[in-house]
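task queued by scheduler; priority normal; single chain, no ligands, no partner chains; default sampling; output format set to structure tokens
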Amino acid sequence: MYVISFAAVLLIFSSCKNKKADPKDYINVSAYLKGQLKYIDTVPFAFLKLTKKDSLFTDSQYITREQVNKIVNEFLVKELEKGNFEKNYKEISFADATIKTVTINYESTDKDNPISRVDVYVNPDKERISQVYLVRSKENSDSTLTQQLLWKHNKSFLLITTISKKDQTEKTITEQIIWDDRPDEE
């Protein structure tokens, strides 16, 4: 009787140990952003940057592709690369009928990841990503920098930078970079 029970426990343990986890099929956010950077290399548009500091409009200017690349490259960290992304983030998805979008949320499982959150908005009718939202944080000795990037597919992006220093008022800079302001096709 004990031999049979022991054999059954050993068989169950062995099958659990050898059971492979289901492969994750996360959206490759890093490849998407890199693809968008390649796309903007091909468009004949200028890049208009509108800046607001603490909600007050302060400046507008045209910037170069290189400046756009520099901004976005801050978000292209190794943790977002395909293999690392699936190890370091958990996925939650839901459909939102009011905005006709499927939202896929990726939350970091490691508090030390520079990118703590990624939201991917997918248009199910067009079967493509419509927007990507990322949150990046960096701790300095005297301050905390938090950046939010909202990338609109083939159109523009919004970068919100918040700087928090001890015993000082939080400062927020909002930069919108637009290269295609034509209305979306339905």
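post-processing summary
- Residues 29-178 form one domain.
- Residues 1-19 have pLDDT under 50 and may be disordered.
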